[in-house]
Recover the amino acids of this structure.
């Protein structure tokens, strides 16, 4: 699942917005019954951070992924050891950072399920872009 920055976090911040938190809580209840490791990955564009509480895009991407993981774990039966949280900064862009549209597409959080650590049949699970709000 891929969530664009719009309607998920305030610009340059890692606090999960309420509509996104509600969606994440619904997702967490579904994930309780899905086997495997849940990977939460944060991504940014390549514009350096200035005047922020985060020292770099690495920090922002990691803290955003961590914020999503915390919401997934709150009020759910998900086991902590099933989650992996990673921040990739701008190292895995989806689009060219030379345009505003490309930069917006690159600012995202992704949740993936690795079935390799489960007894479930292996398969390919693609990413699906979701809108919030």
């Amino acid at each position: 699942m891929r969530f664009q920055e719009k309607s998920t976090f305030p610009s340059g911040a890692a606090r999960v917005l309420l509509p996104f938190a509600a969606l994440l809580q619904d997702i967490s209840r579904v994930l309780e019954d899905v086997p495997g490791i849940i990977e939460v990955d944060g991504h940014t564009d390549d514009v350096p951070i200035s005047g922020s509480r985060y020292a770099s895009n690495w920090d922002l991407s990691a803290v955003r992924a961590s914020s999503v993981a915390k919401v997934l774990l709150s009020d759910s039966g998900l086991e902590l050891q099933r989650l992996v949280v990673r921040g990739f900064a701008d190292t895995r862009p989806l689009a060219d950072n030379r345009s505003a549209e490309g930069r917006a597409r690159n600012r995202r959080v992704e949740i993936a399920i690795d079935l390799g650590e489960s007894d479930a049949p292996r398969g390919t699970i693609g990413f699906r872009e979701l809108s919030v709000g």
Summary: DSSP finds three helices and five strands in the chain. The longest strand covers residues 37-43.
